[in-house]
Amino acid sequence: MEKGKESVFERKINYYETDRMGVVHHSNYIRYLEEARCFWLEQVKMPFSLLEENGITIPVLGVNVSYKYHVTFDDIILIHVFVKEYSGVRMTIGYNVEDKKTGKIVLTGETKHCFTDKNLKPINLKKYAPEFNSKIEELM
């Protein structure tokens, strides 16, 4: 996990995720980012299950990606996940997706989130759950 306070998630591309041209369909990358984000939360000892047990949810407010290159069936991608911005109420997660074999950047992007209670009311993690706040601040 260390390397610049980022997490690297490795994933093999499945055949069903490709389109008629034989490349990964663009919509699948949003799922890959979510898989990587869940992996990252586990790595920093804040899995979704623990957050939810503490009444915390992290809805997605927005997604912004730029497609740089393509990958195909059986390729392996590495998704680098890191915190770009954090205020206690909102958080932006950054992603760099690369083709493991070639090292080419496949996608760059970010997802924007806020923290809410289980009723989807926004919360300030600094006040609501200082222990989780500290973990995220350490990653900045």
Comma- or semicolon-separated keywords:
alpha+beta; 4 helices; 140 residues; 32% strand
Question: What's the SSE blueprint?
Answer:
Elements (H helix, E strand, L loop, with lengths): L6 E6 L15 H16 L4 H6 L6 E8 L8 E11 L3 E10 L5 E10 L10 H4 L1 H10 L1
Antiparallel strand pairs: 1-3, 2-5, 3-4, 4-5
What does this structure look like?
This protein has 140 residues and is of the alpha+beta class. It has a single domain, classed as Hotdog Thioesterase (Thiol Ester Dehydrase, Chain A, Roll), CATH 3.10.129. Helix content is 26%, strand content 32%. The chain contains four helices and five strands, in the order E-H-H-E-E-E-E-H-H. The protein has helices spanning 28-43, 48-53, 125-128, 130-139; strands spanning 7-12, 60-67, 76-86, 90-99, 105-114. The chain has a five-stranded antiparallel sheet with strand order 1-3-4-5-2. A hairpin with a 3-residue loop joins strand 3 (76-86) and strand 4. The longest helix has 16 residues, at 28-43. The radius of gyration is 16 Å and the shape is elongated. The model has no long low-confidence stretch (mean pLDDT 94).
C-alpha-based Rg, rounded: 16 Å
Strand adjacency order, main sheet = 1-3-4-5-2
CATH 2nd-level architecture: Roll
Helicity level: 25-40%
Count of helical stretches: 4
Count of the separate structural domains:
1
* Mass-distribution shape: elongated
